[in-house]
Fold each of these.
Amino acid sequence: MAIPIKVRAGNGEIKALISHPTENGLRKDAKSGQFIPAHFINSVMVAINGKTVLDGQWSGGVSKDPFIAFRVKGMKAGDRVNLSVKDNMGDTGSVETSAS
Amino acid sequence: MNSARRLLLKAAGSAGLLTSAVAAGLLKPGRALADWDSAAFSATRLTDALAAIGASGATTSLDVVVKTPDIAENGAVVPVEIVTTLPNVESIAILAEKNPTPLIAQYTLTDFDGMLTTRIKLRETSKVRAIVRAGGKLYTSAKEVKVTIGGCGG
C-alpha cells in the first residue's frame, strides 16, 4: 500500500492518502453481476515519537484511497510520525516520517 | 467481620456497574486493544448506530462545525472536515445518516488541535453528523449534503 504523508510542525497538521480499493461490499461487478466483496481499512493509527495520538476505526463508507488529515498540539520539527493501517482482509501498511 | 463483607459488596457492585456501562457502550475498553466495533458499524439505523457508540445523549453544539460541500456531484468522494473549539477532545465519530450503515469512522484522540478531515461515501442526499466527546461530555452537529450521483453502489 502506498501511503504518501505530509507532516508540518508549524501548525501540527498530519495529512496522508492511502492507496486502497475500499470496497463496501454493496457494489456489483458490472460484468458478472456479483457483489464485489467488502475490502476496506478498518484500523488506522498515528503515533508521534511512539505515543498514539489517533486510534481510528473505519467502515467501507470511507472513500476509495482514504484521505485523512488532522491537527495535534505541541508538534516540533524532527518529531517522528508513524501511521499504520490494517484492512479487513489482514493486509497492513505503514509509513514513518519526520515533522518539518 | 462486617467491613470485609462491605468491601466485597462494594467491589462486586462497582464491577457490575462497569460491565453494564461497557455493554451499553458508555465506556470503551482500551481502544488500542479493542477489535473493530462490528456492532456499531453494522447498525443499519442511525439511532442504533448512535446507541452502539454510546452517543444517544449528545447535545447539539455550535462549537462543533461539520464542513462539507453543499452539493456533492460524486457521492463516492465527499470531503468532511470536523472543526471544534472544544478543549480536551477525546473522540470523534462521523456518521452519514442515510447510508445503509450510517457509522463511517470513529477516532480516539490525544493532544487533538481542533481539525480532522476524512473523505466519505454518501448513497444519497443526507445529513453528515459528527459526535465529539470532550471533557467527558458528548456534543453533536450535522450538515446536509445534496448528492447528485450516489456512492454506495447497488
Note: Strands of chain B lie at 59-60, 64-67, 71-74, 78-84, 89-96, 103-109, 112-120, 126-134, 137-149.
Amino acid sequence: MNTELLGVPPDTITRREVIYDQEGETLEISMGPHHPSTHGVFRMDVRLEGERIVRLKPVIGYLHRNHEKIAEGTTYLGSIPYTDRLDYFCSLTNNWAYCMAVEQLAGFEVPDRAQYLRVILSELTRLQNHASAVGFLVQDMGASGTPIMYAFREREKILDLFEALTGSRMMCNYMRFGGCRVDLPAGWIDQLKALMKTLPAFLEEFEKLLVSNEILMARTQGVGVLSAKLAVNAGVTGPMLRATGVNYDLRKVDGYGFYPRFEFKVPLGEHGDVYDRYMIRVLEMRESVKILNQAIEQLPEGPIIDPKAKLRGFRPKPGESYGRLEAPKGELGFYLISDGSPNPYRYRVRPPSFVNLTILEDMCLGANIADAVIILGSVDIVLGEVDR
Amino acid sequence: MNPFSTEALLAALKAQLPGVTVELQRNEAPSAQHSWLIAAQDAVVVAQWLRDKEGFDFCSNVTGVDWPTYLEVVYHLYSIEKRIGPVILRMRTGDRDKSVHLPSLTHVWRAAELQEREIFDLYGVIFDGHADLRRILMWDGFEGHPMRRDYVEPDDYEYEPTAHDHVAERASKHTTGGAE
C-alpha cells in the first residue's frame, strides 16, 4: 500500500506483513472476491507455506455503499427499508434493532401484542438463518446439494409466512417505531402452528444427517479453535462466542423485548472449534422452537403500535442512544445521535459479522488452506452487513 | 442486565486515578446513556483501568462522529463478567483539518482493530499505536474520507483497481526477474 497517498507518514504504521516476507519460500494466493466459498464478495489474501497458512488478511469493501452516509441524509422512517439490506437473511432482526434504538431515543412504548409479534418473527428469522448457515457450512465441506436443500426446504416455509405477513420474502420492512406495521392476516397463526408441528422432525432429521457423520467430524473437530479470552477481547458475539463457553446471550443479559417471559436455555460449547459453532446453531434452533411455541400460546389481542409514536415528520429531541439485540449472527447494534432535525446527525450500524472477522487470521494460522474455507463458513458472514 | 450507575463508576475512577481528565457528558434523551469525555493522553490509562479493575472486558462498538470543529471517537463498553454496561468513552481530536491523531485502544480491546481502521478510512482519524492502520472499506488509492460532512464526491471515479493488481504485479516481477 502506498501510505503517502493517504497523507500518513509511513513510519506511523507498523506493518506485520514484513515479518513473513521471504520471497520464493511462500506462496501468495488471493482467494476471492469471486470464490464460491466466500459467501459473497469477500477476499482473503493468503500466504502459504506448502498448504499451511502463515498469513491471512481479510479484504472487504466490494459491496460498500456507505449505508451510514445515506441514512444520515434520510429521515428516520426512510432508513427502515434500507436496514433490510444489511444482513439480507435476517431483515426482521435488523428492523427491530434499528427501531429499538429509535424507541430508546424518543421514549416510545411498544404494546404487548407487537412485542410478541417481534419475538415470533425474530425467532423465525433465527431458525431460517441457522438452518441455512449450517447447510452452507456442510456445502463448504463438499457435501454438495443435499444438506443445503434440506435446509432451504424448511426456509421456504418460513419465508412463505414472512410473505403472507409483510408482503416480501426477504426485504420485510415490517417493524416501525413503537410497534409493527400491519396485524396478522387471517389464518397466519394456524399456518405457523402447523409449521411448528413439523419443525422438530426436520431438526431431528437434519441433526441425524450430520452429527454422526465421520467426515464432518474429522473436518470440523479441533479446527479453527478460538479461546474464550481472545473471543471476548476481540468483541466476538453470537454463536461464535457461545461456542467458546462464554454465557452471553443478549436475550438473557439485556432481557429486551419480552424475552424474560419465555423459558429457554442458552447452549454453550466447550472447545470453541468449528464443530462447536455448528452444534450451537443446531441447538439454538431447538430453543427457538420452544420460544415460538410459548409465544403462540401467550399472544394477546390489542393494538400493534404505540399511538404516541410519530413516523412522518418525526423529530426526536437532541440526544443519543445505542440499541443492541441478539441477531442470529451476534450482537447487532445501532447508534444514533439526534440534533433535533428530521435526519439523524450520526447513524452507525455495529454489524456482528464485521467484528467477528477480526480474529479470522488468528483462527486460520497454521491450518490448511482447505480448512480456511470452513473456518470462514463457521463465522457465518453476510457481506451486505460486513461492507454496508 | 444488572443495575449499574455510570456516575458512581466515574467517581470511583476519579478517586483511584486522580491525575486523569474525565468529565461526564449528560444525555437528555430517554435512553439516559451518559458518556465520559476523556482527554486523549489519558485514554489508554482509563481503558486499562476499566478492563483490569472493573471488568469491562467487552468493547462492543467503536465509531466516529464528525462535529463542526473536531472529530470524535466513541467507544461502547460492556462487562460480560458482571453483566453491566454501557460505559461510553468519547475522545476528541483537535482541529479536524490539522491534528487528527488519537491513541489507539486496540491493545486493550482487540475488538477495536477493524472498527478503528474503518474510522481511519471514513473519517481520517489517525490512531497512534494501531498495528495495521490501512483503508478497509474504500480501496487503497482512494482520496479523502467519505463520512466527513464536507466530503465532495468527484465527478467520476476513474481509478478503480482490480482485486488482483498487486498480486499480478508481483507475479510479473517474478517471471521477468525484476528486469522490467
Note: The first strand of chain B starts at residue 22 and ends at 25.
